[in-house]
Amino acid sequence: MAAPGADASGEDALIARYFRPLATDLGAFNLLDDAAILKATGEDLVVTTDAMVEGVHFLADDPPETIGRKALRVNLSDLASKGATPAGFVLTLALGAAEEAWLAPFARGLGEDAERFGCPLLGGDTVSTPGPLMISITAFGRVAAGRIVHRSGAKPGDRVVVTGTIGDAMVGLDILKGRSAATAMADDASAREMLIARYRLPQPRNVLAQAVRDHAGAAMDVSDGLAGDLGKLCAASGVSAVVDLPSIPLSRPVATLLARGAVRIEALVSGGDDYEILCTIPENQFEAFAGEAGSAGVAVASIGTIVAGTHAPKFLDADGTEMSLSRRSYSHF
Amino acid sequence: MAAPGADASGEDALIARYFRPLATDLGAFNLLDDAAILKATGEDLVVTTDAMVEGVHFLADDPPETIGRKALRVNLSDLASKGATPAGFVLTLALGAAEEAWLAPFARGLGEDAERFGCPLLGGDTVSTPGPLMISITAFGRVAAGRIVHRSGAKPGDRVVVTGTIGDAMVGLDILKGRSAATAMADDASAREMLIARYRLPQPRNVLAQAVRDHAGAAMDVSDGLAGDLGKLCAASGVSAVVDLPSIPLSRPVATLLARGAVRIEALVSGGDDYEILCTIPENQFEAFAGEAGSAGVAVASIGTIVAGTHAPKFLDADGTEMSLSRRSYSHF
Predict the structure, then answer these.
(1) Is residue B2 part of a domain?
(2) Selected residues 144-203 of chain B with any CB under 8 Å from a CB in chain A
(3) pLDDT in tens, A129-152
């Protein structure tokens, strides 16, 4: 990503107008060079990549401002779950055409979040495509050497903990697509709005990075569905888990839909797009973790226990009956 | 990018089969986590991103093996021009479907080059798209603190230097598209093959990274056309340049086409896809630079001189007449 010189082309002008203001880090060289610099600071550099395709990860008529924010936030959520502090990001943007009406709010939303989360634009590439809009972000974070929080550190006896609420984004997407949840929510505009916002604008839990680093044995963010993601965490750790379904934190609107039978718990725990932190906390550290989360204004819920074994995690209802899950997470292929 | 656990989905299986073998760096955690680690080593970390879209940056019927190689090589070329040693890369791959017949050779080519250039896969994201195939790579390199070579260090009196030959890839693409160059080359199959290979398989000059670091005042790689890229380098440096057109290094087949009038010099210097290094070398260091390049087996040519001024670089023919350039480089928009 490099901006205009004597021979400014459309692409360079676009970068200068919309993206140079986001490149506030010295290592971005004002997007005037071919590469950026991340300084060595003695800490490990955490690298994560998440891409979004129009019609797959967001809807063509989602507001460009939230598309820009979401593209960055899904990566910030990965950094938070690894215990890392954001350091910057690079952006690949594949566009059909350089439309100012779309680019201006996209870059504004992205820039506001870059500033809010302390994660400046370092560089990237802007290309044209005859296909759908696509955004790929690679984000960088810093963590003290050797202190990244892995998926693989869960131990039998640990609590299984999630932040926030689960399933909101999945219901929000259903509403946007006019599916059954939309009908069931027809009488509650503010709930509809909240759920749609949860789909369009994840709330990455970067304020919890230090608490995760200090207390979690294993952590990841919930992006493809709680059930599948917990399965991945357990597999990486060589353990299993038992989850108490009634303990899974739900927002009031989703709890209402569930009580009415308008949405199934199976769908909520496999729907994805939650961008909450899923982590395992040793029993003797749960109180400290919950306290620090509370101070940071983030709700956390203990939803189950890590157990020995290699079977897929079990999800038990209030009667202790195991829920059968035909599909535990979202897969692209 | 994370590979299968108890609940392996198609996406995870695909990553495990095709991409885990490329993740040879310890910091990639076998693609079993949500993020990778780059260790701090006291050196600066150079970050560069280049994306390729089917039908825009490569042709749908290009061999998947060379598509994989090219996607990495265009990024390696950026690292080389900045004087950086490759450290690893992350890959975003947007696919219509997970076709083994395409993925296997793509990953094999990519993996062979990752090994050859010492640039292992660290992570990434694989997503589905209803649109054209797209590959975005963010590559990392290391350079001693403060020693990155910028675009902005050119000074009046410096020589303007390029590696290899210019225009081959542009003619190779013309041949693949059946344009006039194809007709003119109809009698020379080996030349056609060489030129097509130059389009499909850039030769990044990473063996020159140290020579560039030690001798170049300014450097970048030629990706969008020599004329436009030199204009950008000059603008970033606050200088201009005078280039001697007959000094621009051409391969034998391209020189023949030029002599026959089958291709114009204006097209060769604005065509792009060269992935050669363009740099400026102080006069008293040119001999040392050329000697080191020769030892590394890379041809370098002195094609002009940096001069004071802010006008676009001038390209003079054998008579000293300035060539007029309507289009100096490729722009996406």
Answers:
(1) no
(2) 145, 148, 150-152
(3) 999 999 999 999 999 999 999 999
